[in-house]
């Protein structure tokens, strides 16, 4: 069911939601969180589709906030979708004129009571997510540095402004790589002398993995540039030869260890819906992410300036 409201109010939107749930036999008590998406017309379709897919695992009320025509008269239009592509509710709020400067006041009455709030910026992350009005409403704030033209600068800004509850898809994309690297080194191995992370230039996930390895292993880590796609390999230098995990195709990784047969491991590049679903599984502060951010500019990490590229992992 899709309902369009033009020049409306939050009270009218809430009334329509209640009526729609009554007709469909649904209940708002099934919602586990409210997901606020701060987006624009160009990105809203993909962002809402990803959120609806993630909502199959985490039933949510999705509020997509779009500000338009800042010089127009204040007006609020709403597109309400209930019982369509996910078990939750999707409300697209288009705010015109000065009203867009007070989007938090419009969104606040539409939050599901007594459940966590997550704010997600698919593109254009603010310098201080926790200080942004729609970010201040949330317990969890999700950005995507890879969507920026200068992802490393975004990460540096996020490190300076970090508050508990902040996270970035650059870190989420690192999860499979970190799991594989931890499993590789969770077995007897020669002394590690150095490491190298190879990826496309401007890949924030590679920068974060390099910082994480330096933080955890206390060895020099070099950031090398490859043709991609995404992260193509991690190499550890040891006295017995190199231990290498290579993934040239973005789907399957090969673990090469001196004196042992090669092993292959599935390591595919994940879609946005999978990344979002992972972030919605945990709403507590990610202390390891915070430590890694602070370690990005540590002396043991060789991250010379690189050209911006496609920042997917």
Short account of what is shown:
With 313 residues, the chain is α/β, with parallel strands linked by helices. The chain has ten helices and 15 strands. Strand 7, helix 5 and strand 8 form a beta-alpha-beta unit.
Task: List its traits.
single chain, 313 residues, alpha/beta, Rossmann fold, eight-stranded mixed sheet, seven-stranded mixed sheet, 10 helices, 26% strand
Describe this structure in words.
The structure is a single chain. This protein has helices spanning 10-24, 41-55, 103-107, 133-136, 151-161, 169-172, 175-185, 204-217, 272-281, 287-294; strands spanning 2-5, 33-39, 60-68, 75-82, 89-96, 117-120, 140-143, 166-168, 194-199, 221-225, 231-237, 243-246, 252-256, 263-266, 301-302. With 313 residues, the chain is of the alpha/beta class. An eight-stranded mixed sheet has the order 1-4-5-3-2-6-7-8, sandwiched between helices. The chain has a seven-stranded mixed sheet with strand order 14-13-12-11-9-10-15, with helices on one face. The two termini are 37 Å apart. The model is unreliable at 304-310 (pLDDT under 50).
């Amino acid at each position: 069911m899709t309902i369009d409201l033009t020049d409306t109010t939050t009270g009218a939107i809430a009334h329509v939601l209640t009526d729609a749930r009554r007709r469909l036999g649904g209940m708002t008590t099934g919602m586990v969180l409210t997901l606020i998406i701060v987006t624009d017309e160009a990105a809203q379709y993909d962002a809402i589709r990803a959120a609806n897919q993630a909502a199959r695992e985490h039933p949510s009320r999705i509020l997509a906030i779009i500000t338009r025509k800042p010089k127009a008269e204040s007006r609020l239009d709403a597109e309400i979708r209930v019982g369509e592509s996910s078990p939750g509710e999707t409300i697209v709020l288009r705010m015109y004129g000065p009203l867009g400067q007070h989007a938090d006041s419009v969104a606040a009455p539409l939050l599901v009571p007594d459940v966590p709030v997550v704010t997600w910026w698919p593109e254009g992350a603010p310098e201080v997510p926790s200080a942004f009005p729609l970010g201040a409403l949330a317990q969890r704030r999700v950005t995507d540095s890879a969507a920026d033209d200068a992802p490393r600068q975004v990460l540096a800004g996020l490190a300076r402004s970090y508050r508990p509850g902040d996270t970035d898809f650059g870190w989420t994309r690192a999860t499979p790589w970190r799991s594989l690297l931890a499993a590789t080194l969770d077995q007897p191995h020669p002394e590690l002398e150095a490491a190298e992370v190879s990826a496309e230039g401007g890949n924030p996930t590679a920068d974060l993995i390099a910082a994480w390895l330096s933080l955890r292993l206390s060895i020099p880590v070099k950031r090398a540039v490859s043709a991609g796609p995404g992260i193509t390999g991690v190499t550890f230098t040891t006295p017995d030869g190199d231990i290498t995990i290579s993934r040239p195709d973005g789907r399957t990784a090969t673990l090469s260890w001196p004196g042992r047969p090669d092993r292959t491991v599935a390591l595919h590049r994940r879609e946005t819906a999978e990344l979002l679903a992972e972030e919605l599984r945990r709403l507590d502060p990610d202390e390891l992410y915070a430590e890694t951010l602070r370690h990005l500019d540590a002396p043991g990490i060789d991250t010379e300036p690189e050209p911006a590229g496609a920042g997917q992992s």
